Automatic annotation (TrEMBL):
<dbReference type="GO" id="GO:0004372">
    <property type="term" value="F:glycine hydroxymethyltransferase activity"/>
</dbReference>
<keyword id="KW-0028">Amino-acid biosynthesis</keyword>
<comment type="pathway">
    <text>Amino-acid biosynthesis; glycine biosynthesis; glycine from L-serine: step 1/1.</text>
</comment>
<dbReference type="GO" id="GO:0042803">
    <property type="term" value="F:protein homodimerization activity"/>
</dbReference>
<feature type="modified residue" description="N6-(pyridoxal phosphate)lysine">
    <location>
        <position position="221"/>
    </location>
</feature>
<dbReference type="GO" id="GO:0005829">
    <property type="term" value="C:cytosol"/>
</dbReference>
<feature type="binding site">
    <location>
        <begin position="116"/>
        <end position="118"/>
    </location>
    <ligand>
        <name>(6S)-5,6,7,8-tetrahydrofolate</name>
    </ligand>
</feature>
<keyword id="KW-0963">Cytoplasm</keyword>
<keyword id="KW-0663">Pyridoxal phosphate</keyword>
<feature type="site" description="Plays an important role in substrate specificity">
    <location>
        <position position="220"/>
    </location>
</feature>
<comment type="subunit">
    <text>Homodimer.</text>
</comment>
<comment type="similarity">
    <text>Belongs to the SHMT family.</text>
</comment>
<dbReference type="Pfam" id="PF00464">
    <property type="entry name" value="SHMT"/>
</dbReference>
<feature type="domain" description="Serine hydroxymethyltransferase-like">
    <location>
        <begin position="2"/>
        <end position="375"/>
    </location>
</feature>
<dbReference type="InterPro" id="IPR019798">
    <property type="entry name" value="Ser_HO-MeTrfase_PLP_BS"/>
</dbReference>
<dbReference type="GO" id="GO:0030170">
    <property type="term" value="F:pyridoxal phosphate binding"/>
</dbReference>
<dbReference type="GO" id="GO:0019264">
    <property type="term" value="P:glycine biosynthetic process from serine"/>
</dbReference>
Length: 406
């Protein structure tokens, strides 16, 4: 690369990803094949429209590429229809609203502080400003969804759309129960599986197919693809979904991203990916158990998937200083609100972690007690402002990761 500054930053980021325990639940490593496809010459091509119905010429290789990604998505998830053009998860969710509702309609989703997503009707999002949002929560005592409350709220408010899924949900999503409530309330059930798509593809989490009429997902996170998104649906909603994506919200798709998605979907169909998905969950459960032994409080008491949400209130420190201390210690996480948090969102009580990237590196249950011990030491160091202790942990992390190359 001739741009030395950009080349330098790429090199530094490569080293950082190599030498860090990457434990942000929404991050992962893509394969070399996905990386090469995403950086391919398909980035040079404009392709407004859909295969066979484009507004630009020169599509004889783009069309079969997008068709390949679509067919792989349909086969992997067992759906009638797939749209692989959304630029990312939030635009994909916006397309759902455009396809299924009108401004001012009532929509329902999990509240952001309870583990939901901004685009599920939270007030600071466009989805909360353009629609009438109602939000459900989790129980204080155990951090689980109270389906009696969800049902009562849905029957009282009669939402046009009912979202299930979110960004900080450590437990299995009960899609059949949500479907029953949506049907009774006359709502369209939309499952946002952005975090768990790879687990679903690998058989490590139940699928919403057959329960949710529309499914939204990103293509990175546990699915290990590029930064993109997909909308999956039954045949009844296919036309509305496609029209909402283009021309409703977007222009031409990012063909280089489509190439990376096609590769990732092909990889997710392999038997080895099924092993990976189950190992992600096994690692998360082992890490949760080890964290409990270290005296951490976990929202809902543990995890069923790839994600763990820690409540640091009992440690006498907020999530933000702990996340920063862990980062110095070579452990990448993100601070996060916890249900019924009394602290501000930019300085919350929680920490969100996950095991997708660690598992891709090859770590197993055997290493999780060590990870939990490092995290406990880092919290102690943060309480004492002991940077030397954090630097020592970072050295130990680098030493461990030498045995697990990217």
């Amino acid at each position: 690369m001739h741009d030395q500054r950009v080349a330098e930053l790429i090199g530094l980021e490569t080293e950082r990803q190599r030498d860090t325990l990457r434990m942000i639940a929404s991050e992962n490593y893509v394969s070399r094949d996905v990386l090469e496809a995403t950086g391919s010459v398909f980035t040079n091509k404009y392709s407004e429209g859909y295969p066979g119905k484009r507004y630009y010429e020169g599509q004889r290789f783009v069309d079969p590429l997008e068709e390949l990604a679509i067919e792989r998505a349909k086969a992997l998830f067992g759906v009638d229809h797939a749209n692989v053009q959304p630029y990312s998860g939030s635009p994909a969710n916006l397309a759902v609203y455009l396809a299924l509702a009108k401004p001012g309609d009532t929509v329902m989703g999990m509240a952001l502080p309870m583990g939901g997503h901004l685009t599920h009707g939270w007030p600071v999002s466009a989805t909360g400003a353009w629609f009438r949002p109602v939000q459900y929560s989790v129980r204080r005592e155990d951090g689980r969804i109270d389906f009696d409350e969800v049902r009562d709220l849905a029957l009282r408010e009669r939402p046009k759309i009912l979202f299930c899924g979110g960004t900080a949900i450590p437990r299995t999503i009960d899609f059949p129960r949500f479907a029953e409530i949506a049907h009774e309330a006359g709502a369209v059930l939309v499952a946002d599986i952005a975090h768990i798509a790879g687990l679903i593809a690998g058989g490590a989490h139940p699928s919403p197919v057959g329960h949710a009429e529309v499914i939204s997902t990103t293509t990175h996170k546990t699915l290990r693809g590029p930064r993109g998104a997909m909308l999956l649906c039954d045949e009844r909603h296919a036309k509305a979904v496609d029209k909402a994506v283009f021309p409703g919200l977007q222009g031409g798709p990012h063909n280089h991203t489509t190439a990376g998605i096609a590769v990732a979907l092909g990889e997710a169909a392999q038997p080895s990916f099924r092993d990976y998905a189950h190992q992600v969950v096994a690692n998360a459960k082992a890490l949760a158990a080890a964290l409990l032994e270290q005296g951490f409080d976990l929202v809902s008491g543990g995890t069923d998937n790839h994600l763990i949400l820690l409540d640091l209130t009992g440690k006498g420190i907020g999530g933000k200083p702990v996340a920063k201390a862990l980062d110095r210690a070579g452990i990448e996480t993100n601070y996060n609100t916890v249900p019924y948090d009394t602290r501000k969102p930019f300085d919350p009580s929680g920490l969100r972690i996950g095991t997708p990237a660690l598992t891709t590196r090859g770590l197993t249950e055997a290493q999780m007690p060590q990870v939990a011990a490092w995290m406990s030491r880092a919290v102690d160091a943060a309480l004492k402002s002991d940077d030397a202790a954090l630097d020592a942990i970072a050295g130990e992390v680098r030493e461990l990761l030498r045995a697990y190359p990217v």
